[in-house]
Design goal:
Helices cover about 45% and strands about 10% of the residues. It is α/β, with parallel strands linked by helices. It folds into two domains: about 10-180, Rossmann fold, CATH 3.40.50; about 185-360, no CATH class. The strands form three sheets. A six-stranded parallel β-sheet has the order 1-10-2-9-6-3, sandwiched between helices. Strands 4-5 form a two-stranded antiparallel ribbon. α1 (about 10-25) packs parallel to α2 (about 50-65) and α9 (about 240-255) packs antiparallel against α10 (about 255-265). It starts with 7 loop residues before the first strand and ends in a 6-residue tail after the last helix.
């Protein structure tokens, strides 16, 4: 499956499009299953799964309804997991199918269910047949999904060097197809909100092409948004010292990328005091680009952990005025990515007003 005849969107664009569609029908009291099931295509690790969770959060925020996501990794399923287990009826004259857990959804009007069928294109074909029946008819055998259920499927394209089966045209014509592309700006905003480790965000802001190299070779370990999130988790949970966890990082993003990442992060040893910046005591400003990327990523991470201390945030914005304009802009964009409510708080700070007058005319 290629992108020759379908729209190509970033994760953020796809979420915005689907949120608008689903929220519109929900507010009109039209069951969300009135809309076609959605099929998300894209390379491994591009953020399809995170996009579905983000969509759920945004539907919840806009409609006030409880949104429940059932995440089904089809590669791990067999047909009986979807159809249920056969058993005898009460008088032992007929076979009936026990309802699988994924069909146990609350039909209450105050709830929206999202059934996410991931890895549909790589699942065994017997499982795909059952999964396609769910996406097309919202049934499997005698089991039916409730009207308040949104069905979204996702899979890799045939061109992605993954095990992927081409979808039959008769089935494809009954789905709404969207291709998800890798996009650094969308990933960066998500990474800041998520709290991805500052060494990962700093390095990838410095070398954006390293975010996704799934097509570069046939290696088992290679950089994608997913494997960089795995790297961030290792740095957060095990050790922020890359030398300590280097083999694990190399096992996620590959040896070549890990070597360059480790080498680049040595710049953190010469950074000015981040605590001093937020206390209004640090005046030293790096001049080398790699160190500037590192200091900006460190400031964003520190601000995320201390975002309610608006006095300290104000000091950091004063410091931002000393940075080259491109790096200053990156920092404030990262602050804005904390959320719309937080952006409104920042807009009340006199330090941000000063920054906008001097450096941020094109940001808003």
């Amino acid at each position: 499956m290629s992108n020759a005849n379908m729209p190509v969107l970033t994760v953020d664009n796809a979420v915005a499009l689907l949120k608008n569609a689903y929220c519109t029908v929900i507010k009109k009291n039209i069951p969300p299953n009135f809309l076609p099931s959605v099929m998300l295509w894209g390379p491994p690790g591009v953020g399809k799964s995170q996009g579905v969770r983000q969509l759920a959060s945004e539907i919840r925020a806009e409609t006030g309804k409880t949104v429940c996501v059932t995440d089904v990794r089809l590669l791990l399923f067999n047909p009986i997991d979807l159809r249920g287990i056969p058993t005898a009826n009460a008088d032992k004259t007929l076979a009936v199918w026990l309802r699988p857990k994924i069909f146990q959804m609350d039909e209450n009007a105050g709830i929206v269910n999202i059934l996410f069928l991931d890895e549909i294109s790589t699942a065994p074909q017997s499982v795909q047949a059952a999964a396609y029946q769910i996406t097309l008819d919202r049934t499997v055998g005698e089991h039916r999904l409730p009207e308040n259920c949104i069905v979204i499927a996702a899979g890799n394209r045939v061109i992605d060097k993954s095990v992927a089966y081409k979808m039959p045209r008769a089935l494809a014509n009954r789905l709404c197809h969207l291709e998800i592309k890798s996009d650094f700006d969308s990933w960066k905003a998500w990474a800041v909100r998520k709290g991805i480790h500052e060494k990962v965000t700093g390095y990838l802001t410095f070398r954006q092409t390293a975010i996704d190299q799934a097509k570069a070779d046939d290696s088992l370990a290679f950089p994608t948004p997913r494997s960089w999130e795995m790297t961030s988790n290792i740095l957060h949970a095990v050790s922020g010292d890359i030398d300590v966890v280097y083999p694990m990082i190399a096992g996620c993003v590959g040896l070549g990328t890990a070597v360059e990442f480790r080498s680049w992060t040595k710049v953190y040893e010469g950074l000015p005091s981040i605590e001093g910046i937020f206390a209004g005591k640090e005046n030293a400003v790096p001049t080398q680009p790699d160190m500037l990327y590192a200091v900006v990523s460190s400031m964003a991470a520190y601000a995320k952990r201390n975002k309610d201390d608006l006095t300290s945030i104000g000091y950091s914005i004063k410091y931002a005025l000393k940075l080259p304009s491109d790096f200053s802009m990156i920092l404030i964009k990262d602050y804005f990515a904390f959320g719309e409510d937080y952006k409104k708080k920042l807009m009340k700070l006199p330090e941000l007003m000063d920054w906008l007058k001097k450096s941020g005319k094109h940001l808003l």
